[in-house]
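re the bet — no i am not wrong, look at it urself. input seq straight from the record:
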Amino acid sequence: MRYRLIADKRCPQALCDRLNDALDTSQARRLYHAAKSTYRFNRDHSETAFRAFLKKSTCLPVEDLDDILERSGLGFHEAMLLPVYFDMTGRATT
């Protein structure tokens, strides 16, 4: 089942679409969901420390996050702070 991201009104639709396209496997979607759910804006996350924490706390291949970011053309913090919602109500139409 393929769920999609929905852009918040503050998020350019083109960025959301690029990220949706980059999340082309269920593993990629699970990894991004875990990372975004764990990342908190009010904390001072260094990318290295955050990746180490995520790797320790999940069974997902954190190394694949680089591929997601490369395919979407987004930086780490940009992707984590992108105002998007996870549409968990049904299948994506794309």
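see?? The longest strand covers residues 4-7. told u. also The chain has one domain: 4-87. so pay up
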